[in-house]
Automatic annotation (TrEMBL):
UniProt keyword annotation of Transcription regulation present: no
Protein name: 5-formyltetrahydrofolate cyclo-ligase
GO molecular function, one term: ATP binding
One Pfam assignment: 5-FTHF_cyc-lig
Catalytic activities: (6S)-5-formyl-5,6,7,8-tetrahydrofolate + ATP = (6R)-5,10-methenyltetrahydrofolate + ADP + phosphate
UniProt keyword list: ATP-binding, Nucleotide-binding
Gene3D superfamilies: NagB/RpiA/CoA transferase-like
């Protein structure tokens, strides 16, 4: 485990160094290419409920135009919100991520940047925002009034720090997305209370998929060309590291798992 963590740390350092040298022009150009590719995917076009990460000002694919297009198409858009747990840490975690709804383009445009420059939800509005699992606010899944057909996600648009052509993903080291995905699957394992969750591929993360309701749901990761490893290299991963279903690259490539 120590060697795995060391390998991840080394790769993160290498990628961050490369990204620090990218110009805003290159990032904007690649972002436009990726956005066009994503919007043309059948999975995106059919999605009624999707989550989209809100990008840092530099170092990753920008997503503002994706959010705007999703609203123009009448889709429901959810964005990440990370918060500290008040109680004893769960599964060794002190903070977790939820996906909460944006209400409109105007709501999105009104978001203020956090200390990393990422547009962020106002904490004072959380209780009135729909949770993608049902209900409102943080841990909305506990709301017994939530209807199963009105919860879940058809598509997750995910960031990452590094990727490989076998759909391996390296995050920033906090594990928020991996934990979110595994928690989703664990909570929906009971077929009598199954809600829609993104389809993650066969035998992913060793959670059963036979009891989960599967529509066209998928995970699409957006990446700059410089974040994709050469074909001969792989992202160092552990069992809890979830691969993605599609990789959309700034050079125009769209890679999809069979």
């Amino acid at each position: 485990m120590a060697s795995l963590q060391a390998a991840k740390k080394e790769l993160r350092g290498q990628i961050k160094k490369v990204l620090s040298g990218l110009s805003a022009e290159s990032i904007n150009k690649q972002s436009a290419t990726v956005t066009k590719s994503l919007l043309s995917l059948p999975e995106y076009q059919a999605a009624k409920r999707l989550s989209v990460y809100l990008a840092m000002p530099s170092g990753e694919i920008q997503t503002a135009d994706i959010v705007r297009d999703a609203f123009s198409q009448g889709k429901q858009v959810y964005v990440p919100y990370i918060y500290q747990l008040d109680s004893v840490a769960t599964q060794g975690r002190k903070s977790v991520m939820e996906m909460l709804a944006l209400r409109s383009v105007e709501d999105y445009e009104s978001l203020q940047p956090d200390k990393w420059g990422i547009p962020s939800l106002d904490a004072g509005t959380l209780a009135t925002r729909e949770n993608c699992f049902g209900g409102y606010g943080l841990l909305g899944l506990s709301n017994p009034a939530a209807e199963k057909d009105e919860s879940g996600l058809d598509l997750i648009v995910m960031p990452g720090l590094a990727f490989d052509e076998k759909f391996g993903r390296l995050g920033h080291g906090k594990g928020y997305y991996d934990h979110f995905i595994m928690r989703s699957r664990g909570q929906h394992a009971d077929a009598t209370n199954a809600r829609r969750i993104p389809y993650l591929g066969k035998n992913l993360c060793q959670f059963p998929i036979t009891t989960c309701r599967r529509l066209i749901q998928s995970i699409a990761a957006l990446t700059l060309e410089e974040q994709v490893l050469p074909p001969s290299e792989r992202v160092p991963t552990a069992e809890h590291d979830c691969p993605v279903d599609a990789l959309i690259v700034g050079d125009g490539r769209v890679l999809k798992r069979a």
